[in-house]
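User: quick one, sequence for these C-alpha coordinates?
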Protein backbone atom coordinates (compact mmCIF):
# COMPACT_ATOMS: atom_id res chain seq x y z
CA UNK A 1 0.00 0.00 0.00
CA UNK A 2 2.88 2.34 0.71
CA UNK A 3 3.92 2.22 -2.96
CA UNK A 4 0.35 3.03 -4.06
CA UNK A 5 0.12 5.97 -1.61
CA UNK A 6 3.19 7.56 -3.20
CA UNK A 7 1.05 8.82 -6.09
CA UNK A 8 -2.59 8.35 -5.04
CA UNK A 9 -4.16 10.77 -2.51
CA UNK A 10 -5.48 9.12 0.70
CA UNK A 11 -8.97 10.49 -0.08
CA UNK A 12 -9.09 8.12 -3.08
CA UNK A 13 -8.15 4.99 -1.12
CA UNK A 14 -10.83 3.15 0.86
CA UNK A 15 -10.02 0.44 3.37
CA UNK A 16 -12.95 0.72 5.83
CA UNK A 17 -15.26 -2.32 5.78
CA UNK A 18 -18.37 -0.19 5.14
CA UNK A 19 -16.77 1.38 2.04
CA UNK A 20 -15.44 -1.91 0.74
CA UNK A 21 -18.83 -3.54 1.26
CA UNK A 22 -20.41 -1.00 -1.15
CA UNK A 23 -18.15 -2.39 -3.86
CA UNK A 24 -18.78 -6.09 -3.09
CA UNK A 25 -21.74 -6.51 -5.45
CA UNK A 26 -23.13 -5.38 -8.80
CA UNK A 27 -26.67 -5.63 -10.22
CA UNK A 28 -26.44 -9.45 -10.52
CA UNK A 29 -25.79 -12.16 -7.92
CA UNK A 30 -22.88 -12.91 -5.63
CA UNK A 31 -20.95 -10.85 -3.08
CA UNK A 32 -17.15 -10.61 -2.86
CA UNK A 33 -15.34 -8.20 -0.56
CA UNK A 34 -12.31 -6.38 -2.01
CA UNK A 35 -9.25 -5.74 0.20
CA UNK A 36 -9.11 -2.14 -0.94
CA UNK A 37 -10.99 0.23 -3.25
CA UNK A 38 -9.00 2.85 -5.14
CA UNK A 39 -10.54 5.64 -7.18
CA UNK A 40 -8.50 6.65 -10.23
CA UNK A 41 -9.10 10.08 -11.72
CA UNK A 42 -6.57 10.16 -14.55
CA UNK A 43 -4.40 7.95 -16.75
CA UNK A 44 -1.20 8.45 -14.70
CA UNK A 45 -2.95 7.18 -11.59
CA UNK A 46 -4.21 4.10 -13.47
CA UNK A 47 -0.70 3.36 -14.79
CA UNK A 48 0.76 3.68 -11.26
CA UNK A 49 -1.83 1.39 -9.65
CA UNK A 50 -1.72 -1.25 -12.40
CA UNK A 51 2.09 -1.33 -12.47
CA UNK A 52 2.23 -2.00 -8.73
CA UNK A 53 -0.58 -4.57 -8.88
CA UNK A 54 1.30 -6.38 -11.65
CA UNK A 55 4.62 -6.21 -9.78
CA UNK A 56 3.12 -7.78 -6.63
CA UNK A 57 0.61 -10.04 -8.48
CA UNK A 58 -2.41 -8.37 -6.83
CA UNK A 59 -5.77 -8.93 -8.59
CA UNK A 60 -7.33 -5.72 -9.88
CA UNK A 61 -10.95 -5.26 -10.99
CA UNK A 62 -12.01 -2.24 -13.08
CA UNK A 63 -15.42 -0.84 -12.15
CA UNK A 64 -17.69 1.83 -13.59
CA UNK A 65 -21.11 2.25 -11.99
CA UNK A 66 -21.57 -1.42 -10.99
CA UNK A 67 -24.78 -1.91 -13.03
CA UNK A 68 -23.43 -5.10 -14.62
CA UNK A 69 -25.93 -7.96 -14.82
CA UNK A 70 -23.37 -10.79 -15.03
CA UNK A 71 -20.90 -10.23 -12.15
CA UNK A 72 -18.24 -8.49 -14.29
CA UNK A 73 -16.78 -6.06 -11.72
CA UNK A 74 -16.94 -8.43 -8.70
CA UNK A 75 -13.62 -8.92 -6.84
CA UNK A 76 -13.89 -12.70 -6.69
CA UNK A 77 -10.30 -13.24 -5.43
CA UNK A 78 -10.08 -10.10 -3.25
CA UNK A 79 -7.47 -7.47 -4.14
CA UNK A 80 -8.09 -4.00 -5.60
CA UNK A 81 -11.36 -2.67 -7.01
CA UNK A 82 -10.39 0.20 -9.30
CA UNK A 83 -13.31 2.63 -9.30
CA UNK A 84 -13.29 4.75 -12.46
CA UNK A 85 -16.64 6.46 -11.87
CA UNK A 86 -15.07 9.52 -10.17
CA UNK A 87 -12.82 10.41 -13.13
CA UNK A 88 -13.85 13.96 -14.20
CA UNK A 89 -16.20 13.93 -17.20
CA UNK A 90 -14.43 14.80 -20.47
CA UNK A 91 -16.47 14.98 -23.67
CA UNK A 92 -14.47 16.35 -26.61
CA UNK A 93 -16.90 16.85 -29.50
CA UNK A 94 -15.49 16.98 -33.03
CA UNK A 95 -18.71 17.71 -34.93
CA UNK A 96 -16.99 18.17 -38.32
CA UNK A 97 -15.47 14.68 -38.06
CA UNK A 98 -18.68 13.23 -36.58
CA UNK A 99 -16.66 11.91 -33.64
CA UNK A 100 -16.45 12.44 -29.91
CA UNK A 101 -13.61 11.56 -27.52
CA UNK A 102 -14.65 10.69 -23.97
CA UNK A 103 -13.21 9.74 -20.60
CA UNK A 104 -14.23 6.31 -19.21
CA UNK A 105 -16.50 7.69 -16.48
CA UNK A 106 -18.91 9.55 -18.77
CA UNK A 107 -22.49 8.36 -18.43
CA UNK A 108 -23.61 7.09 -21.83
CA UNK A 109 -26.71 9.28 -22.02
CA UNK A 110 -24.51 12.39 -21.62
CA UNK A 111 -22.73 11.58 -24.90
CA UNK A 112 -26.00 11.62 -26.78
CA UNK A 113 -27.11 14.84 -25.04
CA UNK A 114 -23.93 16.58 -26.23
CA UNK A 115 -24.17 15.08 -29.74
CA UNK A 116 -27.75 16.32 -30.14
CA UNK A 117 -26.59 19.91 -29.61
CA UNK A 118 -24.78 19.49 -32.96
CA UNK A 119 -27.62 17.71 -34.78
CA UNK A 120 -25.84 14.38 -34.24
CA UNK A 121 -26.60 11.14 -32.41
CA UNK A 122 -24.65 8.52 -30.47
CA UNK A 123 -26.81 5.57 -31.42
CA UNK A 124 -26.14 2.83 -28.80
CA UNK A 125 -28.89 3.21 -26.20
CA UNK A 126 -28.76 0.61 -23.40
CA UNK A 127 -31.70 1.06 -21.02
CA UNK A 128 -29.14 1.84 -18.30
CA UNK A 129 -27.63 4.73 -20.33
CA UNK A 130 -28.48 7.28 -17.59
CA UNK A 131 -26.69 5.30 -14.88
CA UNK A 132 -23.92 3.31 -16.61
CA UNK A 133 -20.50 4.53 -17.79
CA UNK A 134 -19.17 4.38 -21.34
CA UNK A 135 -16.21 2.40 -19.90
CA UNK A 136 -18.64 -0.27 -18.70
CA UNK A 137 -20.50 -0.17 -22.06
CA UNK A 138 -17.23 -0.68 -23.95
CA UNK A 139 -16.13 -3.53 -21.69
CA UNK A 140 -19.53 -5.26 -22.04
CA UNK A 141 -20.23 -4.26 -25.67
CA UNK A 142 -23.62 -3.04 -24.49
CA UNK A 143 -26.60 -2.66 -26.78
CA UNK A 144 -30.10 -1.28 -26.69
CA UNK A 145 -33.32 -1.07 -28.71
CA UNK A 146 -31.72 1.00 -31.49
CA UNK A 147 -29.22 -1.86 -32.04
CA UNK A 148 -31.64 -3.31 -34.58
CA UNK A 149 -30.90 -0.59 -37.12
CA UNK A 150 -27.65 0.94 -35.92
CA UNK A 151 -25.73 -1.85 -34.16
CA UNK A 152 -24.23 -1.99 -30.69
CA UNK A 153 -21.33 -0.28 -28.90
CA UNK A 154 -18.61 -2.01 -30.98
CA UNK A 155 -20.07 -0.54 -34.17
CA UNK A 156 -19.46 3.00 -32.87
CA UNK A 157 -15.88 2.82 -31.62
CA UNK A 158 -13.07 4.22 -33.76
CA UNK A 159 -10.23 4.17 -31.26
CA UNK A 160 -9.30 3.36 -27.68
CA UNK A 161 -6.61 4.18 -25.16
CA UNK A 162 -5.86 1.29 -22.82
CA UNK A 163 -3.58 0.71 -19.85
CA UNK A 164 -2.46 -2.88 -20.31
CA UNK A 165 -2.21 -5.33 -17.38
CA UNK A 166 1.56 -4.66 -17.38
CA UNK A 167 1.05 -0.91 -17.02
CA UNK A 168 1.84 0.14 -20.60
CA UNK A 169 -0.36 2.63 -22.45
CA UNK A 170 -1.49 1.60 -25.93
CA UNK A 171 -3.67 3.33 -28.49
CA UNK A 172 -5.78 1.35 -30.95
CA UNK A 173 -7.58 2.65 -34.04
CA UNK A 174 -7.89 6.44 -34.19
CA UNK A 175 -10.12 9.22 -35.52
CA UNK A 176 -10.67 7.80 -38.99
CA UNK A 177 -13.63 5.78 -40.22
CA UNK A 178 -11.30 3.46 -42.14
CA UNK A 179 -8.29 1.84 -40.51
CA UNK A 180 -6.81 -1.53 -41.45
CA UNK A 181 -3.37 -1.17 -39.89
CA UNK A 182 -2.60 -4.51 -38.29
CA UNK A 183 -4.87 -6.59 -36.09
CA UNK A 184 -8.09 -4.92 -34.99
CA UNK A 185 -7.28 -4.62 -31.29
CA UNK A 186 -10.13 -2.16 -30.79
CA UNK A 187 -12.66 -4.89 -31.50
CA UNK A 188 -10.77 -7.35 -29.30
CA UNK A 189 -10.86 -4.99 -26.32
CA UNK A 190 -14.54 -4.15 -26.72
CA UNK A 191 -16.56 -6.79 -24.90
CA UNK A 192 -13.46 -8.16 -23.13
CA UNK A 193 -15.14 -7.47 -19.77
CA UNK A 194 -12.22 -5.61 -18.21
CA UNK A 195 -9.90 -8.64 -18.59
CA UNK A 196 -7.42 -7.11 -21.04
CA UNK A 197 -6.77 -3.76 -19.36
CA UNK A 198 -8.29 -0.47 -18.27
CA UNK A 199 -9.91 1.67 -20.97
CA UNK A 200 -8.89 5.27 -20.24
CA UNK A 201 -10.26 7.02 -23.35
CA UNK A 202 -12.47 6.23 -26.33
CA UNK A 203 -13.11 7.93 -29.67
CA UNK A 204 -16.67 7.22 -30.78
CA UNK A 205 -18.47 7.59 -34.08
CA UNK A 206 -21.58 9.79 -34.35
CA UNK A 207 -24.29 9.76 -37.00
CA UNK A 208 -26.68 12.52 -38.16
CA UNK A 209 -29.77 12.70 -35.95
CA UNK A 210 -32.70 11.46 -38.06
CA UNK A 211 -35.17 14.23 -38.99
CA UNK A 212 -38.28 12.34 -37.85
CA UNK A 213 -39.44 9.25 -35.96
CA UNK A 214 -42.69 7.28 -36.01
CA UNK A 215 -43.96 4.84 -33.37
CA UNK A 216 -46.34 1.96 -34.10
CA UNK A 217 -47.86 -0.36 -31.47
CA UNK A 218 -49.15 -3.75 -32.64
CA UNK A 219 -51.31 -6.11 -30.54
CA UNK A 220 -51.40 -9.89 -30.89
CA UNK A 221 -53.63 -12.63 -29.49
CA UNK A 222 -50.73 -15.00 -29.45
CA UNK A 223 -47.08 -14.45 -28.71
CA UNK A 224 -45.88 -16.80 -31.49
CA UNK A 225 -47.69 -14.65 -34.08
CA UNK A 226 -45.83 -11.66 -32.66
CA UNK A 227 -42.58 -13.54 -33.29
CA UNK A 228 -43.58 -14.30 -36.88
CA UNK A 229 -44.61 -10.67 -37.45
CA UNK A 230 -41.13 -9.54 -36.45
CA UNK A 231 -39.44 -11.86 -38.97
CA UNK A 232 -41.91 -10.91 -41.73
CA UNK A 233 -41.34 -7.16 -41.22
CA UNK A 234 -37.58 -7.54 -41.32
CA UNK A 235 -37.68 -9.46 -44.60
CA UNK A 236 -40.05 -6.95 -46.21
CA UNK A 237 -37.33 -4.41 -47.01
CA UNK A 238 -38.04 -2.14 -44.04
CA UNK A 239 -35.50 -1.79 -41.26
CA UNK A 240 -37.12 -0.25 -38.17
CA UNK A 241 -34.94 1.45 -35.56
CA UNK A 242 -36.54 -0.56 -32.77
CA UNK A 243 -38.84 -3.59 -32.45
CA UNK A 244 -39.58 -4.32 -28.80
CA UNK A 245 -41.69 -7.21 -27.55
CA UNK A 246 -43.70 -7.34 -24.31
CA UNK A 247 -45.69 -10.42 -23.31
CA UNK A 248 -48.98 -10.25 -21.41
CA UNK A 249 -47.34 -10.64 -17.99
CA UNK A 250 -45.20 -7.56 -18.71
CA UNK A 251 -48.21 -5.58 -19.95
CA UNK A 252 -50.14 -6.40 -16.75
CA UNK A 253 -47.15 -5.65 -14.53
CA UNK A 254 -46.73 -2.19 -16.10
CA UNK A 255 -50.45 -1.40 -15.91
CA UNK A 256 -50.52 -2.31 -12.20
CA UNK A 257 -47.36 -0.31 -11.54
CA UNK A 258 -47.87 2.84 -13.64
CA UNK A 259 -51.05 2.67 -15.73
CA UNK A 260 -50.10 3.66 -19.28
CA UNK A 261 -53.11 2.58 -21.34
CA UNK A 262 -51.51 -0.62 -22.67
CA UNK A 263 -53.99 -3.25 -23.97
CA UNK A 264 -54.52 -5.64 -21.01
CA UNK A 265 -56.32 -8.20 -23.20
CA UNK A 266 -53.44 -8.59 -25.69
CA UNK A 267 -51.26 -11.70 -25.38
CA UNK A 268 -48.28 -9.68 -26.59
CA UNK A 269 -47.45 -6.31 -28.09
CA UNK A 270 -44.66 -5.28 -30.42
CA UNK A 271 -43.63 -1.63 -30.26
CA UNK A 272 -41.92 -0.39 -33.40
CA UNK A 273 -40.02 2.80 -34.10
CA UNK A 274 -39.05 3.98 -37.57
CA UNK A 275 -36.75 6.90 -38.24
CA UNK A 276 -35.83 8.88 -41.35
CA UNK A 277 -37.40 11.40 -43.72
CA UNK A 278 -41.10 12.12 -42.91
CA UNK A 279 -42.24 11.04 -46.39
CA UNK A 280 -40.40 7.68 -46.13
CA UNK A 281 -41.90 7.16 -42.69
CA UNK A 282 -45.41 7.68 -44.04
CA UNK A 283 -44.91 4.98 -46.70
CA UNK A 284 -43.18 2.53 -44.34
CA UNK A 285 -45.84 2.97 -41.67
CA UNK A 286 -48.64 1.98 -44.03
CA UNK A 287 -46.59 -0.99 -45.31
CA UNK A 288 -46.06 -2.22 -41.75
CA UNK A 289 -49.76 -1.78 -41.03
CA UNK A 290 -50.55 -4.01 -44.04
CA UNK A 291 -48.01 -6.68 -43.03
CA UNK A 292 -49.31 -6.80 -39.48
CA UNK A 293 -52.94 -7.23 -40.53
CA UNK A 294 -51.95 -9.92 -43.05
CA UNK A 295 -50.09 -11.93 -40.42
CA UNK A 296 -52.94 -11.79 -37.93
CA UNK A 297 -52.36 -8.85 -35.58
CA UNK A 298 -55.47 -7.96 -33.62
CA UNK A 299 -54.87 -4.20 -33.66
CA UNK A 300 -52.35 -1.67 -35.00
CA UNK A 301 -52.18 1.73 -33.27
CA UNK A 302 -50.32 4.64 -34.80
CA UNK A 303 -49.81 7.51 -32.37
CA UNK A 304 -50.22 10.90 -34.00
CA UNK A 305 -48.64 13.06 -31.30
CA UNK A 306 -45.25 13.01 -29.63
CA UNK A 307 -46.96 12.67 -26.23
CA UNK A 308 -48.83 9.52 -27.28
CA UNK A 309 -45.62 7.99 -28.62
CA UNK A 310 -43.65 8.81 -25.48
CA UNK A 311 -46.42 7.32 -23.33
CA UNK A 312 -45.89 4.00 -25.15
CA UNK A 313 -42.09 4.12 -24.88
CA UNK A 314 -42.28 5.15 -21.22
CA UNK A 315 -44.48 2.10 -20.62
CA UNK A 316 -41.75 -0.06 -22.19
CA UNK A 317 -39.16 1.54 -19.89
CA UNK A 318 -41.32 0.66 -16.86
CA UNK A 319 -41.15 -3.10 -17.53
CA UNK A 320 -38.05 -3.75 -15.41
CA UNK A 321 -39.16 -1.76 -12.33
CA UNK A 322 -42.73 -3.07 -12.69
CA UNK A 323 -41.80 -6.77 -12.76
CA UNK A 324 -39.25 -6.25 -9.97
CA UNK A 325 -42.17 -5.46 -7.64
CA UNK A 326 -43.94 -8.75 -8.24
CA UNK A 327 -41.47 -10.95 -6.32
CA UNK A 328 -38.36 -10.16 -4.24
CA UNK A 329 -35.88 -11.58 -6.78
CA UNK A 330 -35.61 -11.09 -10.53
CA UNK A 331 -33.26 -13.26 -12.59
CA UNK A 332 -32.81 -11.42 -15.86
CA UNK A 333 -31.43 -13.33 -18.86
CA UNK A 334 -30.47 -12.17 -22.33
CA UNK A 335 -30.05 -15.32 -24.39
CA UNK A 336 -30.23 -14.36 -28.06
CA UNK A 337 -31.38 -16.37 -31.08
CA UNK A 338 -31.40 -15.86 -34.86
CA UNK A 339 -34.47 -13.78 -35.67
CA UNK A 340 -36.28 -16.56 -37.51
CA UNK A 341 -36.07 -18.65 -34.32
CA UNK A 342 -37.94 -16.22 -32.06
CA UNK A 343 -41.22 -18.22 -32.24
CA UNK A 344 -39.28 -21.45 -31.39
CA UNK A 345 -37.56 -19.73 -28.48
CA UNK A 346 -40.93 -18.50 -27.19
CA UNK A 347 -42.15 -22.15 -27.29
CA UNK A 348 -39.07 -23.38 -25.43
CA UNK A 349 -39.50 -20.68 -22.78
CA UNK A 350 -43.14 -21.66 -22.29
CA UNK A 351 -42.17 -25.34 -21.77
CA UNK A 352 -39.39 -24.39 -19.33
CA UNK A 353 -41.83 -22.21 -17.39
CA UNK A 354 -44.32 -25.09 -17.12
CA UNK A 355 -41.71 -27.75 -16.37
CA UNK A 356 -40.26 -25.85 -13.39
CA UNK A 357 -43.51 -24.14 -12.25
CA UNK A 358 -41.91 -20.72 -12.37
CA UNK A 359 -43.09 -17.20 -13.00
CA UNK A 360 -41.33 -16.30 -16.29
CA UNK A 361 -42.05 -13.04 -18.11
CA UNK A 362 -40.58 -12.18 -21.50
CA UNK A 363 -39.76 -8.86 -23.09
CA UNK A 364 -36.82 -7.55 -25.07
CA UNK A 365 -35.27 -6.32 -28.24
CA UNK A 366 -37.04 -8.93 -30.29
CA UNK A 367 -36.11 -7.32 -33.61
CA UNK A 368 -32.53 -8.50 -33.13
CA UNK A 369 -33.47 -11.79 -31.47
CA UNK A 370 -32.36 -10.54 -28.06
CA UNK A 371 -35.11 -11.66 -25.68
CA UNK A 372 -35.06 -11.01 -21.95
CA UNK A 373 -36.77 -13.89 -20.18
CA UNK A 374 -37.01 -12.82 -16.52
CA UNK A 375 -37.68 -15.35 -13.78
CA UNK A 376 -39.49 -13.81 -10.82
CA UNK A 377 -38.70 -15.69 -7.62
CA UNK A 378 -37.60 -15.36 -3.99
CA UNK A 379 -33.92 -15.78 -3.22
CA UNK A 380 -34.75 -16.86 0.36
CA UNK A 381 -36.60 -19.93 -0.95
CA UNK A 382 -33.81 -22.43 -1.59
CA UNK A 383 -36.05 -25.04 -3.20
CA UNK A 384 -37.44 -22.47 -5.66
CA UNK A 385 -33.95 -21.13 -6.42
CA UNK A 386 -32.73 -24.65 -7.22
CA UNK A 387 -35.56 -24.87 -9.81
CA UNK A 388 -34.59 -21.41 -11.12
CA UNK A 389 -30.98 -22.54 -11.58
CA UNK A 390 -32.09 -25.55 -13.61
CA UNK A 391 -34.47 -23.40 -15.67
CA UNK A 392 -31.71 -20.88 -16.44
CA UNK A 393 -29.43 -23.70 -17.60
CA UNK A 394 -32.19 -24.88 -19.93
CA UNK A 395 -32.74 -21.36 -21.28
CA UNK A 396 -29.04 -21.16 -22.19
CA UNK A 397 -29.16 -24.61 -23.78
CA UNK A 398 -32.29 -23.67 -25.76
CA UNK A 399 -30.58 -20.56 -27.15
CA UNK A 400 -27.49 -22.57 -28.17
CA UNK A 401 -29.60 -25.38 -29.70
CA UNK A 402 -31.41 -22.80 -31.84
CA UNK A 403 -28.13 -21.42 -33.18
CA UNK A 404 -28.06 -18.51 -30.73
CA UNK A 405 -25.78 -17.28 -27.97
CA UNK A 406 -25.58 -17.18 -24.17
CA UNK A 407 -25.54 -13.41 -24.07
CA UNK A 408 -26.60 -10.69 -26.47
CA UNK A 409 -25.54 -7.79 -24.27
CA UNK A 410 -25.18 -8.51 -20.54
CA UNK A 411 -21.86 -10.35 -20.83
CA UNK A 412 -20.54 -13.58 -19.30
CA UNK A 413 -18.82 -12.43 -16.09
CA UNK A 414 -19.13 -14.99 -13.30
CA UNK A 415 -22.74 -15.92 -14.05
CA UNK A 416 -22.44 -17.58 -17.44
CA UNK A 417 -18.84 -18.81 -17.26
CA UNK A 418 -19.94 -22.43 -16.59
CA UNK A 419 -21.69 -22.50 -19.99
CA UNK A 420 -18.93 -21.08 -22.19
CA UNK A 421 -17.71 -24.47 -23.40
CA UNK A 422 -21.20 -25.38 -24.62
CA UNK A 423 -21.16 -22.45 -27.02
CA UNK A 424 -17.46 -22.17 -27.94
CA UNK A 425 -16.18 -25.74 -27.70
CA UNK A 426 -12.81 -26.72 -26.20
CA UNK A 427 -10.65 -25.25 -28.97
CA UNK A 428 -12.55 -21.95 -29.11
CA UNK A 429 -12.33 -21.47 -25.36
CA UNK A 430 -8.64 -22.44 -25.30
CA UNK A 431 -7.86 -19.82 -27.98
CA UNK A 432 -9.50 -17.13 -25.83
CA UNK A 433 -7.46 -18.28 -22.81
CA UNK A 434 -4.24 -18.03 -24.83
CA UNK A 435 -5.07 -14.45 -25.83
CA UNK A 436 -5.75 -13.60 -22.18
CA UNK A 437 -2.44 -15.18 -21.06
CA UNK A 438 -0.49 -13.24 -23.71
CA UNK A 439 -2.03 -9.90 -22.62
CA UNK A 440 -1.94 -10.54 -18.90
CA UNK A 441 0.93 -12.93 -18.08
CA UNK A 442 0.42 -12.60 -14.32
CA UNK A 443 -3.36 -13.01 -14.53
CA UNK A 444 -4.06 -9.90 -12.43
CA UNK A 445 -6.69 -8.18 -14.60
CA UNK A 446 -10.24 -9.00 -13.51
CA UNK A 447 -9.54 -12.68 -12.76
CA UNK A 448 -12.35 -15.17 -12.20
CA UNK A 449 -14.43 -14.00 -15.18
CA UNK A 450 -15.69 -15.71 -18.35
CA UNK A 451 -13.45 -18.82 -18.04
CA UNK A 452 -15.10 -21.63 -16.08
CA UNK A 453 -13.32 -22.93 -13.00
CA UNK A 454 -13.16 -26.72 -12.69
CA UNK A 455 -16.60 -27.99 -11.66
CA UNK A 456 -18.08 -24.46 -11.58
CA UNK A 457 -21.89 -24.38 -11.65
CA UNK A 458 -24.45 -21.63 -11.95
CA UNK A 459 -25.16 -20.32 -8.43
CA UNK A 460 -27.91 -17.79 -7.83
CA UNK A 461 -27.99 -18.14 -4.06
CA UNK A 462 -25.72 -16.10 -1.79
CA UNK A 463 -23.91 -18.28 0.75
C1 LIG B 1 -31.78 -1.57 -14.98
C2 LIG B 1 -30.67 -2.02 -15.88
C3 LIG B 1 -30.86 -1.98 -17.25
C4 LIG B 1 -29.84 -2.42 -18.10
N1 LIG B 1 -30.06 -2.36 -19.44
C5 LIG B 1 -29.10 -2.76 -20.29
C6 LIG B 1 -29.31 -2.72 -21.70
O1 LIG B 1 -30.34 -2.29 -22.20
N2 LIG B 1 -28.31 -3.15 -22.50
C7 LIG B 1 -27.12 -3.61 -21.99
O2 LIG B 1 -26.26 -3.97 -22.78
N3 LIG B 1 -26.90 -3.67 -20.65
C8 LIG B 1 -27.84 -3.26 -19.79
N4 LIG B 1 -27.62 -3.31 -18.44
C9 LIG B 1 -26.32 -3.81 -17.94
C10 LIG B 1 -25.27 -2.71 -17.60
O3 LIG B 1 -25.87 -1.47 -17.39
C11 LIG B 1 -24.22 -2.63 -18.70
O4 LIG B 1 -23.46 -3.82 -18.76
C12 LIG B 1 -23.23 -1.44 -18.53
O5 LIG B 1 -22.39 -1.38 -19.64
C13 LIG B 1 -22.37 -1.52 -17.28
O6 LIG B 1 -21.76 -0.25 -17.07
P1 LIG B 1 -21.18 0.15 -15.65
O7 LIG B 1 -20.58 1.51 -15.73
O8 LIG B 1 -22.19 -0.03 -14.60
O9 LIG B 1 -20.01 -0.92 -15.50
P2 LIG B 1 -19.73 -1.97 -14.34
O10 LIG B 1 -20.94 -2.74 -14.01
O11 LIG B 1 -19.06 -1.27 -13.20
O12 LIG B 1 -18.66 -2.92 -15.04
C14 LIG B 1 -19.03 -3.73 -16.11
C15 LIG B 1 -17.79 -4.42 -16.69
O13 LIG B 1 -16.96 -3.46 -17.30
C16 LIG B 1 -15.64 -3.48 -16.76
N5 LIG B 1 -15.20 -2.08 -16.82
C17 LIG B 1 -15.85 -1.00 -16.34
N6 LIG B 1 -15.17 0.12 -16.67
C18 LIG B 1 -14.06 -0.28 -17.36
C19 LIG B 1 -12.97 0.40 -17.96
N7 LIG B 1 -12.87 1.72 -17.94
N8 LIG B 1 -12.02 -0.34 -18.56
C20 LIG B 1 -12.09 -1.69 -18.61
N9 LIG B 1 -13.11 -2.38 -18.07
C21 LIG B 1 -14.08 -1.68 -17.45
C22 LIG B 1 -15.80 -4.10 -15.38
O14 LIG B 1 -14.63 -4.75 -14.95
C23 LIG B 1 -16.93 -5.10 -15.64
O15 LIG B 1 -16.41 -6.29 -16.16
C24 LIG B 1 -28.61 -2.90 -17.56
C25 LIG B 1 -28.43 -2.92 -16.18
C26 LIG B 1 -29.44 -2.49 -15.35
C27 LIG B 1 -29.20 -2.54 -13.86
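Assistant:
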Amino acid sequence: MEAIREEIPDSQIMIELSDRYSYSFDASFGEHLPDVVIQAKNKQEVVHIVTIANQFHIPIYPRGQGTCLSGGPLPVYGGIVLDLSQWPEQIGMSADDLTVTVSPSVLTARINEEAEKHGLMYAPDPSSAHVATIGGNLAENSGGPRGLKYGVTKDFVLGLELVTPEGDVIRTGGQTIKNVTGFDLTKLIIGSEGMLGIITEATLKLVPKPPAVQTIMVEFNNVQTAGRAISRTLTSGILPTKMELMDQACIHAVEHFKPSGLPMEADAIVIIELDGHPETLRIETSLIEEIMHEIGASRVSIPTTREEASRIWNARKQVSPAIARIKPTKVSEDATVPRSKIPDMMDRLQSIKEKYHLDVVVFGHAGDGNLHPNILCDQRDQEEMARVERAVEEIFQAAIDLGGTLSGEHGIGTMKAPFMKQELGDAGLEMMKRIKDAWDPNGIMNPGKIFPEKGQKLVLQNE
